[in-house]
UniProtKB/TrEMBL annotation:
This is Cytochrome c biogenesis protein CcsA. One of its GO terms (biological process) is cytochrome complex assembly. One of its GO terms (cellular component) is plasma membrane. The gene is ccsA. It comes from Caulerpa serrulata. Keywords: Chloroplast, Cytochrome c-type biogenesis, Membrane, Plastid, Transmembrane, Transmembrane helix.
Length: 181
């Protein structure tokens, strides 16, 4: 039900675009690569699973805070923590694979694996934050559940900066398809 509605709305919205935006132009040579689909798909999947894990961690922190400030609630803290851990444990290897595939693609397109583009730099920051999260979770110290939830909360904002914010803050190799670029 949702998919046909979204497709219909997307098609209808495209008719409302100005003529100059409705014309197709060929992709730049760097985007004419087989690595494009793999890199973009894996990165989007990683962002989605990481965001889901972060949202569960944020919920964990809210419920934990409300538990200490009032009547005790029957909240499955361990289950929430495990849900977050599982989601982030899926998203982290996907993020790693996405960064590696992007590096291979960059070498094919521009002749270097890494160019410190703002998007690349923020994806590295994202990778480091979730590596810290997994390190905290895998050390099995009881206090690390709360610490890792705070790290995941920070990771929530970093993923959004990496996904959307970088394109608004600066230009780089990843600035494709923006109206004001």
């Amino acid at each position: 039900m949702t998919t046909p509605t979204a497709l219909f709305l997307n098609g209808f919205a495209s008719f409302q675009l100005p003529e100059s935006m409705q014309k197709f132009s060929p992709l730049v040579p760097a985007l004419q690569s087989n690595w494009l689909m793999m890199h973009v798909t894996v990165m989007l999947l990683s962002y989605a699973t990481l965001i889901c894990g972060c949202i569960v961690s944020i919920g964990y922190l809210f419920l934990y805070k409300s538990k200490s400030g009032g009547r005790p609630q029957e909240v499955p803290f361990h289950q929430l923590d495990q849900m977050s851990f599982r989601s982030i444990s899926i998203g982290f290897p996907l993020l790693t694979l996405g960064i590696i595939s992007g590096s291979v693609w960059a070498n094919e397109a521009w002749g270097s694996y890494w160019s410190w583009d703002p998007k690349e730099t923020w994806s590295l920051i994202t990778w480091i934050i979730f590596a810290v999260y997994l390190h905290l979770r895998l050390t099995k110290v009881p206090q690390n559940e709360i610490k890792s939830a705070f790290v995941a909360t920070g990771g929530f904002f970093v993923v959004w900066i990496c996904f959307l914010g970088v394109n608004f803050l600066s230009k780089g190799l990843h600035s494709y398809g923006w109206f004001f670029s």
